[in-house]
From TrEMBL:
Keywords: Aminoacyl-tRNA synthetase, ATP-binding, Ligase, Nucleotide-binding
MF-aspect GO terms: ATP binding; serine-tRNA ligase activity
Its EC number(s): 6.1.1.11
GO BP field: seryl-tRNA aminoacylation
InterPro entries from the UniProt entry: aa-tRNA-synt_IIb (IPR002314), aa-tRNA-synth_II (IPR006195), aa-tRNA-synth_II/BPL/LPL (IPR045864), Ser-tRNA-ligase_type_1 (IPR002317)
Listed name of the protein: serine--tRNA ligase
Aminoacyl-transfer RNA synthetases class-II family profile domain span: 53-215
Lineage: Eukaryota, Metazoa, Spiralia, Lophotrochozoa, Annelida
Gene3D superfamilies: Bira Bifunctional Protein, Domain 2
Family: Belongs to the class-II aminoacyl-tRNA synthetase family. Type-1 seryl-tRNA synthetase subfamily.
């Protein structure tokens, strides 16, 4: 539902929206999710949790759809795409001391830092100014890596403290020890946006002969491969247009 995305702080209408809306006459009020944060927030919508159940830490691997454009030359190509895969972390926490969500932002940032460090990625962390926060966040960190092909720092991850912005709009609450009901806080962070991570690993890991160094952390998942060599023969790609007949034949086979 588009209302879920609005509740997360993402505008679904207007000229500057990055949200794809499906045809209302056929699908009703439905939008494509721009990030895994949205379905995870929706999972907790209209929830009443107890204090001892918090924090709730979840993650997802999902397809994301964004109507993104950019006038910046360096951001063209696969840096900004309309459909991609992303690993997203999401936390619902209490607000008793006023520091729980701040501490969890640092925890997610630490996870991201450890992940990128293990991959040998050169990155920097930016504590974003207020004009760069967007509607839901009261604090946001961006992580950027150096992309040598276009000679610029590109964002590969972000972590946001949304305090009670989303919980008030999505009705996410918890019961305190004295029985009072209070709105929870939400925190989110990107563990891996696949296209940009591929750009980072390929550009920074390429040797002069065109081969690609595989980071030690990934070698166990690639059968011990340490280098991706350039193939002896050029790859030949053929695109086949599927008709209804060929689809039926493929299913039958």
């Amino acid at each position: 539902m588009c209302g879920l995305q609005e509740g997360c702080g993402f505008s679904t209408t207007g000229e500057r929206t990055q949200v794809y809306r499906l045809e209302p006459s056929k699908h009703g009020d439905v939008c494509l999710a721009g990030t895994g944060e949205m379905p995870l927030a929706g999972y907790f919508a209209n929830s009443l949790l107890s204090l001892d159940e918090l924090p709730q830490k979840v993650m997802t691997v999902s397809r994301c759809f964004r109507a993104e454009t950019s006038s910046v030359e360096e951001e063209r190509g696969i840096y900004r795409v309309h459909q991609f895969t992303k690993v997203e972390m999401f936390v619902v926490t209490a607000n008793e001391t006023g520091h729980e969500s701040d501490d969890l932002v640092e925890e997610l940032r630490s996870i991201e830092r450890d992940l990128f460090t293990s991959l040998g990625v050169h990155f920097r962390v930016l504590d974003m100014p207020s004009q760069e926060l967007g509607a839901p966040a009261c604090r946001k960190y961006d992580m950027e890596t150096w992309m040598p092909a276009k000679q610029f720092w590109g964002e590969i991850s972000s972590t946001s403290n949304c305090s009670d912005f989303q919980s008030r709009r999505l009705n996410i609450k918890y019961t305190r020890t004295d029985g009072q009901v209070k709105h929870a806080h939400t925190v989110n962070g990107t563990a891996c946006a696949v296209p940009r991570m591929l750009m980072t690993l390929l550009e920074n890991g390429q040797n002069e002969d065109g081969s690609i160094r595989v980071p030690p952390a990934l070698q166990p998942y690639m059968n011990g491969m340490t280098v991706i060599e350039k193939p002896d023969q050029p790859l030949i790609l053929r695109w086949n247009k599927l008709t209804n007949t060929t689809r039926r034949q493929a299913k039958q086979s």
